[in-house]
Write a structure and sequence with these properties.
alpha+beta, NE0471 N-terminal domain-like, three-stranded antiparallel beta sheet, binds zinc ion
């Protein structure tokens, strides 16, 4: 159980112009391409509203970078993107699962 908890607690979070990287407390390392992550934004407007599809509002984006990010409680991060979009909450559960190939979209 303790080991399971460590899977979704970040030890370090850093980013550069291409990727966001998370080192988890269990030693696993995840790397996320920023453009892919931007397109995966789980917020309602990026999903095209209720009943909309992922990608409907983000399909035109060809480049993404991070201006800043903040922790949201103990469970997620919120990213301010270079297009000033900041309503997406990326939960650690989702980030970890995505990184391990266990899901291909993020839950809102
Ligand atoms: Zn969004």
């Amino acid at each position: 159980m303790v080991q399971d908890l460590k899977k979704t607690i970040p030890q370090e979070i850093e980013y550069d112009e291409n990727d966001l990287r998370i080192l988890w407390k269990d030693g696993f390392q995840s790397k996320y391409n920023l453009l892919s992550l931007r397109k995966l934004c789980p917020c309602a407007s990026c999903r095209g509203g209720h009943g909309g599809k992922v990608g409907q509002a983000t399909g035109h984006i060809t480049k993404a970078s991070i201006i800043s990010w903040n922790k949201v409680g103990r469970y997620a991060i919120n990213i301010l993107w270079n297009d000033y979009h900041n309503t997406g909450i990326f939960s650690y559960d989702n980030l970890r699962a995505y990184s391990e190939g266990r899901m291909d979209a993020f839950d809102e």
